[in-house]
Amino acid sequence: MVRVIFSFVFSFLMFLPASLFSQEEPHIIVLGTAQDGGYPHMGCTKECCKMAWKDPSMRRYVVSLALVDPISQQWYLFEATPDIKEQLHLFRQLTSGKYDYLPRAVFVSHAHIGHYPGLMQFGREVMNTRGLTVYTMPRMKKFLESNGPWDQLVRLQNIVPVEISNGSELALSGEITIKCFPVPHRDEYSETAAYEINTLTKKYLFIPDIDKWCKWNENIADKVKTCDIAFVDGTFYSEGELGGRNMEEIPHPFIVETIELFTNEDKQTTEKIHFIHLNHSNPALFDDAVKRSIINKGFSLAEQARRY
Ligand SMILES: [Zn+2]
Ligand SMILES: [Zn+2]
Ligand SMILES: [Zn+2]
């Protein structure tokens, strides 16, 4: 009898998905939280950056995520930033070298200088990679294929740009799918992509750069409700942050505007929001009172080197 029960339990276990036995589930590690210029920012002599030059622990890399799949033993990089060298090293440290040095593929959202120049490190002068997949939307793919020095990386097959079209679902493994969609942004050279990352247990939203929520044909509150964790554009905290500079030329949803937009939503919804892509001028980077007030209102700030 015992033997019958044992063999029954054994055959039952055999048919459970392998993911249930592995200690780790797919997850995200944040590799950078700053706007394209990083923090501190070149040429800034104000208090915001003085502090970060003095105290290295305050510095932040440009916005980037690592999507880690312990089941297939692969990882994926979102955004190839100017800080890619430090970010790949950080990833290796945080994961104790358990994964390949290079990601299985790179996702690049758009042709602004915080989001794709890291690709140059894959070229002949540095890593000389072989056929590294770079997923982009169609205009971004064309941009890489038809402008130097990126076209050389393509010609030498250091990188292989692969198009993901609007709304199509890309299966990276049995556990992970990526959905990509365009958002309104200053699209001088490419469209701007945002992502939904679905794992068996969690759904992440990643919108690093967008002009204003009202310019988008989707409702951000509805989008946030359908996911578990939303990394969203928190470039500026509020109006007037850039001193004399006209902020209408570089529109982003202010953190205070996003908070305002979610006033009628419950804490369960607001705490999914993790602000990312913070400009050096954003007090949420360096002012504890501002950080506290964002958190007290039920929102979060994405933290570099943290696992989600
Ligand atoms: Zn950006
Ligand atoms: Zn500054
Ligand atoms: Zn941008």
In short:
The chain contains 9 helices and 13 strands. With about 300 residues, it is α/β, with parallel strands linked by helices.
Structural write-up:
The protein is an alpha/beta fold and 308 residues long. It has one domain (23-301): Metallo-beta-lactamase, Chain A (4-Layer Sandwich). It has nine helices and 13 strands. The chain has helices spanning 2-14, 47-54, 84-94, 138-146, 150-155, 220-225, 255-261, 267-270, 288-296, and strands at 27-32, 64-69, 74-78, 105-107, 132-136, 159-163, 169-171, 177-182, 193-198, 203-207, 229-233, 273-276, 300-301. A seven-stranded mixed β-sheet has the order 7-8-9-10-11-12-13, covered by helices on one side. The longest helix has 13 residues, at 2-14. The protein is globular and about 45 Å long. The relative contact order is 0.14. The chain binds zinc ion (3 copies). One zinc ion (ZN) binds next to loops.
What is the structural class?
alpha/beta
Helix content: 10-25%
CATH topology: Metallo-beta-lactamase, Chain A
Largest sheet: number of strands, sense, barrel closure:
7 strands, mixed
Numbering strands along the chain, what is their spatial order in the largest sheet?
7-8-9-10-11-12-13
**Count of DSSP strands:** 13
What is Rg?
Answer: 21 Å
Q: Compounds present?
A: zinc ion
User: Which residues form runs of ≥5 with pLDDT under 50?
Assistant: 17-22
CATH-defined superfamily: Ribonuclease Z/Hydroxyacylglutathione hydrolase-like
By CATH reckoning, the class would read Alpha Beta
> What does the average pLDDT come to?
94
